[in-house]
Design a protein that fits this description.
The chain is an alpha+beta fold. The chain has 5 helices and 4 strands, in the order ββββααααα. Strands 1-2 form a two-stranded antiparallel sheet. Helix 4 runs antiparallel to helix 5.
Length: 105
């Protein structure tokens, strides 16, 4: 784990699977800094993968992370589906597929 403090905040870098590295990540360039920032689904997938977080359904994600269910429903479901196929962890794929099924149907 690597920590980096910037004027924007403190960033924590963790190892994640190389197969999913660039998916759902944007490069941000400011006059003084350059960094990568994850899309919401990517950040959630990384939390499940790295920290072992487990939310059995969308309701639990919404409650724990204070995300409105409507925001999850309006999010990038194609990215969620792609992420669910790329993580080598069966556990991470399992949860991402559950969320996709809940939101897609």
């Amino acid at each position: 784990m690597l920590f980096r403090s910037t004027p924007i905040g403190t960033f924590v870098y963790e190892r994640i699977p190389s197969t999913a590295f660039s998916l759902g990540v944007r490069h941000i360039q400011t006059p003084s800094e350059s960094f990568l920032i994850a899309d919401g689904w990517r950040a959630l997938a990384d939390l499940i993968y790295v920290r072992g977080c487990d939310w059995p359904d969308i309701h639990h994600i919404s409650e724990d992370l204070r995300i409105e269910p409507e925001d999850l429903a309006d999010s990038n479901l194609a990215l969620l589906k792609q992420l669910a196929s790329l993580y080598p962890s069966r556990r991470t794929r399992h949860y991402l597929n559950i969320y996709y099924q809940e939101l897609y149907t």
